């Protein structure tokens, strides 16, 4: 054993986490990256666990490992804590990150892993979890400090992990005074035994209480469309609203948009695959109905992609979201007005090029032909048929779905809030606007306005 003095773990980790690089990365964390959030420094009582060797070289090596892990987490790579003893330690993400660093040319780390003392490698499951937990707590503290005394919204999603354990991902949306803009941050994964609305609501409320986030500051909640989340009596949003009366529920608008497209295309598609065998794929590809339906779906999707991307913007507000949806509806209306030209010059021309490459003859479904003849209707050419009986009905269905599913963005409160930005409020009648604001937000307005 060496006589070199063992460094204090708190000092060692403080050095890493106080570096400008780590602090800078932590400041720029966002929730869309699914980054774990949070990090505190272990006390002296933890030193015996993290540093079991008195060798200064080993201590410095732990220093490098923590520093590398912090940088990786800050770069949005989630280090999964080691939980299942049946899984080899060598298969963990933590070890994978160390291997990545070795492959990048870190010879000191290579020598440490290959030749270092087995009782001082700092790669055991316990130390992996402790280092990851330290990083998590540090970043969480940074986020909670930014969100302090801010109005905020919460959004939660549920998904099983690789061990099929049900877990909730909890994120926060709030106004960051430091950057003078809206910010979203991922907070944590938390396991849940039940997925009932009441259970999930209690987990959310307990988390807010534990981290000193006042219920009165919660003004919004967003989830998917599951009945356990949206139910007006037993849904999570109903239980949250009992404690946070200002927390209006909104279905994730981008999820709604995805459901809108799927629902519209499913009603008018042809050539459904019965199985995933090569033969099934082959017959679908050489089916003209399948080709034209795919082209229609692709071009409808191309109209929605810009809206989808904008609705995922972290700094998006309701006013911009409404304008975005209105622009999409205007675009779809233009496509309807110019349907014949658009189908002929864009959609059908692409389908025609594909079918020529595959030596497929344009055709109309036989059941549609029989139905038209029974009604004494002339059988039109394939291009006109797919324009009138597939493209236009699908377009109408899409427009109706967008209007109905995204109607929540037109709520009375949202419309009022959309009139408050300086560039908009100058065009409003202030007396009428103030009267409506008093009706909806009396408890939130400043006393002079009351």
Q: In angstroms, what separates the terminal alpha carbons?
A: 74 Å
Give the domain tally.
Answer: 4
Topology, number of strands: 5
Individual helix count: 20
What portion of the residues fall into strands of 2 or more residues? 5-15%
Provide mean pLDDT, rounded: 74
Helix content range: 55-70%
The stretches of 5 or more residues where confidence is low (pLDDT under 50) are: 1-55, 70-89
The chain-level structural class is alpha/beta
The helix/strand order is HHHHHHHEEEHEHHEHHHHHHHHHH
Shape, principal axes of CA atoms? globular
Going across the biggest sheet, name each strand in turn.
Answer: 3-2-1-4-5
Rg, please? 29 Å
Major sheet description: 5 strands, mixed
């Amino acid at each position: 054993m060496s006589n070199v003095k063992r460094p204090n773990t708190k000092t060692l980790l403080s050095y890493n986490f106080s570096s400008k690089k780590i602090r800078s990365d932590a400041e720029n964390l966002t929730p869309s990256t699914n980054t774990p959030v949070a990090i505190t420094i272990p006390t002296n009582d933890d030193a015996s666990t993290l540093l079991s060797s008195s060798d200064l070289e080993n201590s410095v090596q732990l220093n490098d490992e923590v520093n590398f892990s912090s940088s990786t987490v800050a770069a949005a790579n989630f280090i999964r804590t080691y939980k299942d003893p049946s899984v080899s330690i060598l298969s963990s993400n933590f070890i994978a990150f160390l291997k990545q660093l070795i492959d990048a040319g870190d010879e000191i780390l290579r020598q440490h892993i290959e030749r270092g003392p087995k009782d001082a490698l700092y790669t055991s499951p316990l130390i992996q979890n402790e280092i990851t937990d330290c990083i998590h707590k540090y970043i969480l503290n940074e986020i909670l400090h930014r969100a302090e005394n801010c109005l905020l919204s919460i959004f939660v999603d549920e998904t099983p992990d690789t061990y099929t354990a049900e877990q909730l991902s909890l994120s926060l949306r709030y106004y960051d005074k430091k950057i003078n803009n809206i910010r979203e941050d991922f907070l944590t994964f938390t396991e849940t035994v039940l997925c009932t609305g009441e259970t999930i609501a209690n987990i959310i409320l307990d988390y807010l209480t534990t981290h000193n986030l006042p219920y009165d500051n919660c003004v919004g909640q967003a989830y998917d469309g599951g009945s356990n989340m949206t139910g007006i009596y037993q849904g999570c949003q109903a239980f949250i609203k009992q404690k946070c009366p200002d927390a209006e529920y909104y279905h994730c608008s981008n999820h709604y948009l995805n459901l809108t497209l799927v629902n519209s295309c499913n009603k008018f598609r042809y050539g459904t695959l019965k199985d995933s065998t090569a033969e099934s794929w082959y017959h679908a590809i050489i089916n003209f109905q399948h080709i034209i339906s795919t082209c229609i779906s692709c071009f409808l999707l191309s109209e929605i992609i810009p809206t989808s991307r904008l609705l995922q913007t972290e700094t998006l507000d309701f006013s911009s979201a409404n304008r975005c949806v209105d622009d999409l509806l205007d675009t779809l209306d233009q496509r309807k007005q110019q349907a014949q030209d658009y189908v002929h010059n864009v959609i059908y021309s692409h389908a025609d090029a594909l079918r020529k490459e595959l030596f497929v003859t344009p055709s109309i479904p036989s059941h549609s032909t029989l139905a038209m003849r029974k009604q004494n209707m002339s059988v039109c050419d394939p291009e006109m048929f797919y324009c009138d009986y597939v493209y236009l009905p699908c377009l109408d269905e899409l427009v109706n779905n967008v209007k109905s599913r995204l109607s929540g963005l037109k709520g009375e409160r949202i419309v009022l809030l959309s009139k408050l930005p300086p560039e908009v409020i100058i065009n409003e009648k202030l007396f009428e606007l103030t009267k409506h604001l008093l009706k909806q937000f009396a408890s939130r307005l400043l006393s002079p306005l009351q």
